[in-house]
């Protein structure tokens, strides 16, 4: 398996920024809520977060696949 540093790949840096932003949105949308409002909002926000995380993971996998040496 090929590994590479994020500093060497701007695309990975962008994915890390997307990851931080996704978690930030999740927290931001819940921070001022409590009780029933929190429980209802948290469920929906968690689903949105999971979708974002899955998209980021797929993009990261695609970058890794591109970086793999090609068999001749």
What does this structure look like?
- The chain is mainly alpha-helical.
- The chain has one domain.
- Helices cover 75% and strands 0% of the residues.
- The chain is built from 2 helices and no strands.
- It has helices spanning 10-30, 35-67.
- α1 (10-30) packs antiparallel against α2 (35-67).
- The longest helix has 33 residues, at 35-67.
- The radius of gyration is 17 Å and the shape is elongated.
- The two termini are 17 Å apart.
- The mean pLDDT is 88.
Return the average pLDDT rounded to an integer: 88
Low-confidence stretches: none
Shape: elongated
Distance between the termini: 17 Å
Count of structural domains: 1
- Give me the oligomer status: single chain
- Number of E-type strands: 0
Annotation field: number of helices: 2
Can you write the helix and strand succession as a string? HH
Query: Considering DSSP H and I runs of 4 or more, what fraction of the residues is helical?
Result: over 70%
Beta content comes to under 5%
Q: Tell me about the biggest sheet?
A: none
The assigned structural class equals mainly alpha
Backbone CA Rg: 17 Å
Give a quick precis of the structure.
By secondary structure, this protein is mainly α. The chain contains two helices and no strands.
């Amino acid at each position: 398996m090929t590994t590479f540093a994020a500093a060497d790949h701007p695309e990975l840096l962008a994915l890390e920024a997307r990851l931080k932003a996704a978690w930030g949105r999740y927290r931001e949308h819940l921070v001022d809520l409590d009780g029933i409002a929190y429980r209802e909002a948290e469920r929906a926000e968690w689903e949105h977060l999971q979708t974002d995380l899955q998209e980021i993971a797929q993009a990261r996998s695609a970058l890794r696949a591109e970086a793999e040496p090609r068999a001749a």
